Hints:
Elements: E1 4-8, H1 13-29, E2 32-40, E3 55-56, H2 57-79, E4 85-91, H3 94-105, E5 109-113, H4 119-124, H5 127-134, E6 138-142
Parallel strand pairs: 1-2, 1-5, 2-3, 2-4, 5-6
Amino acid sequence: MYKIVVVGTDGSPTADKAVQAAADIARSWGAELHIVTAVRSPGSGMASASGAALVDSGAGQAMVEEAAKAVGESAIEKFGEGLKVEAHAAQGTADDVILAAAVDVGADLIVVGSKGMRGARRYLGSVPNSVAHAARCAVLVVKTD
């Protein structure tokens, strides 16, 4: 059913839960897994309007590569070779980066964590809400908080 899965991460422990859930789904369907994060431009000190953390471009790429490596290594340990994992880091807000990556790779599932779906952030524009409303494919919100 799913051939290409995209998951967003900001490197937090809650995001790690979403990455693990996405990896499990990708393994079970034999799908590609694309791990993405939003980065800020080298000169930017602004925070994301959605409240999601933005990291600098070098740290962002390193973070998604580390997550991809961890997922890939655990996949080899559990299931042998076969899980294709790619890392992506791009400038922008977390929701825009996740949505753009999903379109670019032709995702049929986006996985996001539930952090930010309660309280005031829910109304101010959380990443999971924004992604769920704007996605062109299925979205799974993983309970991470």
